[in-house]
UniProtKB/TrEMBL annotation:
GO terms for cellular component: plasma membrane. PROSITE patterns: PTS_EIIB_TYPE_2, PTS_EIIC_TYPE_2. This is PTS system fructose-specific EIIBC component. InterPro entries: Bacterial_PTS_Sugar_Transport, PTS_EIIB-like_sf, PTS_EIIB_2, PTS_EIIB_2/3, PTS_EIIC, PTS_EIIC_2, PTS_IIB_fruc, PTS_IIC_fruc. It comes from Clostridium formicaceticum. PANTHER family: FRUCTOSE-LIKE PERMEASE, FRUCTOSE-LIKE PTS SYSTEM EIIBC COMPONENT-RELATED. One of its GO terms (biological process) is phosphoenolpyruvate-dependent sugar phosphotransferase system. It is found in: Cell inner membrane.
């Protein structure tokens, strides 16, 4: 039998491809023919054809974002979390093979799909991550463009007509200006699909214009999405006028609702919260900075790319638009530490790891320096009660040191590859010390807690 699958994680960077590889490798071991389409940050790759779908016994959807299922009508569909496809691919494939395919149980399949869609759309986290996944490329491109402008001097962009000014216009004037509207727009899109996009973008732009920042954008996205979804279901028109709903009635009414609420009700209080939070973060020193860094660091390692990790990362990324750069430095340092610490542990304590894990440690070096925290997942899955506390402690140490030493980071991604860019990192030496200390703490704790591979 043949299977087809789609993998897609909120950021579309690591989990998407790790899940695909995991499913393909396990299917090959079982002698099962499988084709996996990845919907990552670069778009759709290895796209499933109509022939692939028709030949498949069942469809596996391993996703943390909204995935269209219209092309799979009549097929048995198994939906799982993307992390589950990484950890338990064999179990997932076995379940998919046991599903009843085709029209034998079509009515039940349709009902199940509708129920799951309804459950997914009731989850605010899923909608938030959909917005973040579309916002992230803008933040990364914009942040790196801004960082490149600093090669010519920290204030060189102020001179019009220079390359530094052009880079700043690309990064700050364009990419960062779109950050909040796109975040809000695709939160709303995740909730209400196409009718939510226009009011979400409009609400996000208003949030950006009035200084409500990413918090205002998140609220605008949810208000726009749920408003558009409600109106879509509530407004009933004669068939002849039904075509007016998506192009005129829904965009206008939902945009007016979210726009007026942002301008007259929500905007000012949220702006006040953002201003207060920004001022507090900019004034952080000593114990307060250490505590925030510890919390952010531990969150980054807790689920290695899961909801808690993404919450910390989203918080830090959102603050870049408010010119608060310390949390981003702490978050990236803490996110690099888990795979780096485990890679170091496989070198220092080889008797605590299997041969396969030692080999995986070599790849973990590359993943770690690239700020791909998910590189720690295979180790954590094999021994969670020893590995997860160890990497949380190491990441907490890295985050705490980064904040305490006042390290700043203007690029939201890139790992060590952004470090050579002049002025992209503030207190570069202190930042590198934070990463090194976090890595060593992780490795030492893993070596202390893990048992030798011969022990049961």
């Amino acid at each position: 039998m043949k299977l087809v699958a789609i993998t897609s994680c909120p950021t579309g960077i690591a989990h998407t491809y790790m899940a695909a590889e995991s499913l393909e490798k396990t299917a090959k071991e079982k002698g099962i023919d499988i084709k996996v389409e990845t919907q990552g940050s670069v778009g759709v790759e290895n796209e499933l054809t109509l022939e692939d779908v028709q030949e498949a016994h069942a469809v596996i959807i391993a996703a943390g974002t909204t995935v269209s299922r219209e092309r799979f009508a009549g097929k048995a569909i198994l939906e799982v979390a993307v992390s589950e496809a990484i950890k338990n691919p064999g179990s997932i494939i076995d379940k998919a093979l046991k599903l009843e395919a085709g029209k034998q149980n079509l009515s039940k399949q349709v009902e199940d799909i509708k129920k799951k869609r309804s459950e997914e759309r009731s989850g605010p986290y899923k909608h938030l991550m959909a917005g973040v996944s579309f916002m992230l490329p803008l933040v990364v491109a914009g942040g790196l463009a801004i960082a490149l402008s600093f090669i010519f001097g920290i204030e060189a962009f102020q001179q019009e007509g220079t390359l530094a000014a052009a880079l700043m216009q690309i990064g700050g004037g364009a990419a960062f200006a779109l950050m909040v509207p796109v975040l809000a727009g695709y939160i709303a899109y995740s909730i209400a699909e196409r009718p939510g996009l226009a009011p979400g973008l409009i609400g996000g732009m208003i949030a950006s214009q009035i200084g409500a920042g990413f918090l205002g954008g998140i609220l605008a996205g949810f208000i726009a999405g749920y408003t558009a979804d409600f109106l879509k279901k509530a407004i009933k028109l004669p068939r002849a006028f039904e075509g007016l709903k998506p192009v005129l009635i829904l965009p206008l009414l939902s945009s007016l609702v979210v726009g007026l609420l942002m301008i007259y009700v929500i905007g000012a209080p949220v702006k006040g919260i953002m201003d207060a939070m920004t001022a507090w973060l900019q004034s952080l020193t000593g114990t307060n900075a250490l505590l925030l860094g510890t919390i952010l660091g531990a969150m980054m390692a807790f689920d290695m790319g899961g909801p808690v990790n993404k919450a910390a990362y989203t918080f830090a990324v959102g603050l870049l638009g408010a010119n608060v750069f310390e949390p981003q430095a702490a978050v990236m340092a803490a996110g690099m530490t888990p795979p780096l610490g485990l890679a170091l542990a496989t070198v220092l304590f080889k008797n605590k790891f299997t041969k396969a894990e030692v080999e995986a440690g070599k790849a973990a070096w590359v993943l770690g320096i690239s700020f791909i925290t998910e590189g720690a997942i295979p180790f954590a899955a094999a021994d969670p009660f020893r590995v997860i506390p160890s990497i949380m402690a190491g990441s907490a140490a890295a985050g705490a040191l980064s904040m305490t030493l006042g390290a700043t980071l203007r690029a939201p991604h890139g790992g060590i590859f952004v470090l050579p860019i002049p002025n992209a990192v503030g207190n570069l030496v202190g930042y590198m010390v934070a990463i090194a200390v976090g890595t060593i703490v992780t490795a030492c704790l893993v070596g202390l807690l893990k048992k030798k591979v011969s022990e049961v």
